[in-house]
Amino acid sequence: MDLTLGKEDIGKLFVKYSIPSVIAMIVFSLYVVVDGIFVGNVVGAAGLSAVNLAMPFFGIAMALGTMVAIGGGTITSIDLGRGDKEEARRSFSLAFYILTTITLLLSVFTLLFTPTIAKILGSSKELMPLVVEYLRALCLFLATFVGSSYLSANLRVMGKPNHAMVADIIGAALNIVLDYIFVVKFGWGLAGAGVASGLAFTIGFLFALVQYLKKDSILKFVKTNFDAKKVIKIFYNGSSEGITQFAVAFSTYIFNIVLMIKIGEMGVSAFSIILYIASLVTAVFAGICNGISPIISFNHGAKNKERIQKLMKIAIITISVIGVLSTILMMFGGEILISMFTEGDEALVSLTVEATRIYAIAFIVNGLNILASAYFTAIEDAKTSAIISALRGVILIIVFIILLPMIFEETGIWLTVPFSEAVTVVVAFNYMRKSSDKLSLSYGKGNKEVI
């Protein structure tokens, strides 16, 4: 790892690590958005609904992958911060082998039980063929799809954020090109969208993989014994981020079920468009958090509280400004972007515009919740991070999606996320204040507040 993580000016490090990560995440999100535009305009609103119904299942797959990737990456980063390169390599390799095994088994499971999975996801008889088609196409590439994210994350751990950015950009750019070929030119529909994504990110995976095979690579694949304690630690440290991904999948599932009941297929289509747009905003937040996590972990391993505090202050200010600007933009300019997902369906556009203006209120604070969760993961406080993730993505979603529609009817559905994020941010910042005292006792120096 680049040892300047413990010495270089924090402001410069923030820019150096967050910008490549943000660019990579935005490019990845753009691939998702373009995917939706192709599906919406070629397959239609039914295609958007089918993709959204399938997403919770792949969200669970990504949750498992994220759990191992973040958990393993945190341990690897801390090992490097302590100067133990060999142990870092063993941690990195063990997490990769676990991740590959899990995703391959999940792919087989999906192929064997696709129709049953589609029913559980809430698919209607009309949408069933489309949902099955998409699930089967994309599940073939789960190992490389999730694996590319893991390898990219550890390139940042090694101090190579630009390499990570290039790996992500390659996958995203290829997906856009292949989407056009398979969906538009070949007319393969949702199967084409799934295959395009899978092939593109397999290429991105291979590009990242090459970086670890170089002689001068800090992290390498090595033989390692199955260490049960370390495996448990990997899952524990990554549990909060895994829960975050699971929460996204779970909330999408709950929203799909409620929308199918209250509004119907058009409601699910509208929600699908909202999630595509929201992914652009959360990509920026996630990019910042992913970029600075290795810096936090390194300085945590080096017991340097002051540098962590400075970094967090910069991140909080940056994310807050971006959140407010994003809300304003979606309040007044969202219709142009929404119209790109569907051609001539004025009713769908009208519903989505109205819903987006309500949903976008969440952008003011949800970036801060993502940051808080990432911060606690980086300092190996997975329990607190998991609480934050579970609150905003599961517990409060259930509470508010039941209560708010009783008061505000259909509007209450779209208010669920803003209410959940607002309550969570209060809890999250309370935990962060308390963490300052714990760090002071643990490091044995410094009395400054984290925020």
What's the rounded overall pLDDT mean? 86
Low-confidence stretches are 446-451
Share in helix: over 70%
Radius of gyration: 21 Å
Total beta strands: 0
Termini gap:
27 Å
Overall shape:
globular
Q: Report the major sheet.
A: none
Pfam family, one: MatE
Keywords: Antibiotic resistance, Cell membrane, Membrane, Transmembrane, Transmembrane helix, Transport
InterPro entries: MATE_fam (IPR002528), MATE_MepA-like (IPR045070), MATE_MepA_subfamily (IPR051327), MdtK-like (IPR048279)
Family: Belongs to the multi antimicrobial extrusion (MATE) (TC 2.A.66.1) family. MepA subfamily.
Write the layout of secondary structure elements.
Elements: H1 10-43, H2 45-81, H3 85-112, H4 114-120, H5 128-139, H6 142-157, H7 161-185, H8 189-212, H9 228-262, H10 265-301, H11 305-339, H12 346-359, H13 363-378, H14 382-408, H15 410-443
Organism: Clostridium hominis
Family: Belongs to the multi antimicrobial extrusion (MATE) (TC 2.A.66.1) family. MepA subfamily.
InterPro entries: MATE_fam, MATE_MepA-like, MATE_MepA_subfamily, MdtK-like
